[in-house]
């Protein structure tokens, strides 16, 4: 008899817990809650509202990246201009200091440094500088690239005398990560440095701090070119081409869906979008039916 009572007590307890669980869940779903006998309506947040609240708390990150990759790329440091930048160094003239070059750098990065050093903002006196530019080539952080600089963290500690956890430093980057996932791993601790980077992802970009720049080719001229349309006040724009893109088409992996669809827009008149499948070591094994024609058009 006592055993039966114990079983009944357990059964009623389980039923009560299930009732509380599903009752509470349905109450949450209805958007109502009761506090001290008063019913309160809860605002239901949509996806964009939740994403925005995560952005404000700097909680947005890519689930594909490991903790190590996220820490290497931006150190998970929350930065704004008023928290990670020392404006006291910028009183008076705006001056930029470039570290002396000690290692081999790519011609593209050399052009960037030349432009800065030939400008009126350059100073060779670090005590007068508002901004610091590394002489270490950070443009190409693709492990498969011949321009990839190894042991960047060690070289940074040895050569960046005024690093100070990256404060008032500007890092240029065009390529990060490597095939096939292209995780944005710069391979060294960025800290409080500003990043001027092409193809920024939402998970890495720090709003009101980092700078998104276009991805320019390696043969991009250092100086020259036509006057900008806005400057010359030339409206409507009389250009032969409305839109032009030339680049690699990934036959699989990240970026493949977007670039594989570019041929739909290409009209071979004012919209020119040409791609090549020649990318990576196994493109021939994974090429599709359009690769041969696309490669010929790309070469032409």
UniProtKB/TrEMBL annotation:
Official protein name in the record: Exostosin-1-like
Entry similarity comment: Belongs to the glycosyltransferase 47 family.
Keyword entries, A-Z: Glycosyltransferase, Transferase
InterPro entries assigned: Exostosin (IPR004263), Exostosin_GT47 (IPR040911)
Keyword Cell membrane among record annotations: no
Domain Exostosin GT47: 93-293
Native source species: Limulus polyphemus
Lineage of producing organism: Eukaryota, Metazoa, Ecdysozoa, Arthropoda, Chelicerata
Gene, per the UniProt record: LOC106472240
């Amino acid at each position: 008899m006592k055993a039966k009572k114990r079983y009944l007590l357990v059964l009623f307890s389980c039923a009560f817990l299930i009732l509380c669980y599903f009752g509470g869940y349905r109450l949450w779903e209805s958007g109502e809650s009761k506090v001290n006998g008063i019913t309160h309506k809860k605002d239901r947040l949509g996806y964009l509202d939740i994403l925005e609240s995560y952005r404000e708390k700097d909680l947005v990150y890519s689930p594909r990246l490991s903790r190590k990759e996220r820490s290497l790329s931006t150190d998970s440091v929350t930065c704004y201009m008023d928290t990670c930048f020392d404006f006291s160094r910028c009183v008076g003239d705006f001056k930029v200091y470039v570290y002396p070059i000690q290692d081999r750098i790519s011609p593209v990065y050399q052009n960037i440094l030349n432009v800065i050093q030939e400008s009126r903002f350059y100073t060779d006196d670090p005590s007068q500088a508002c901004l610091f530019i590394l002489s270490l080539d950070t443009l190409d952080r693709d492990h498969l690239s011949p321009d990839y600089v190894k042991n960047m963290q060690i070289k940074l500690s040895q050569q960046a005398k005024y690093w100070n956890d990256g404060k008032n430093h500007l890092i240029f980057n065009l390529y990060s990560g490597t095939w096939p996932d292209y995780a944005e791993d710069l391979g060294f601790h960025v800290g409080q440095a500003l990043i001027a980077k092409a193809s920024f992802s939402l998970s890495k970009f720090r709003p009101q701090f980092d700078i998104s720049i276009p991805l320019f080719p390696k043969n991009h001229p250092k100086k020259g070119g036509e006057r900008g349309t806005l400057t010359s006040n030339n409206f409507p724009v009389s250009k032969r081409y409305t839109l032009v893109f030339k680049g690699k088409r990934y036959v699989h992996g990240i970026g493949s869906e977007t670039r594989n669809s570019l041929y739909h827009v290409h009209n071979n008149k004012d919209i020119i979008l040409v791609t090549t499948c020649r990318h990576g070591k196994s493109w021939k094994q994974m090429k599709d039916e359009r690769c041969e024609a696309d490669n010929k058009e790309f070469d032409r």
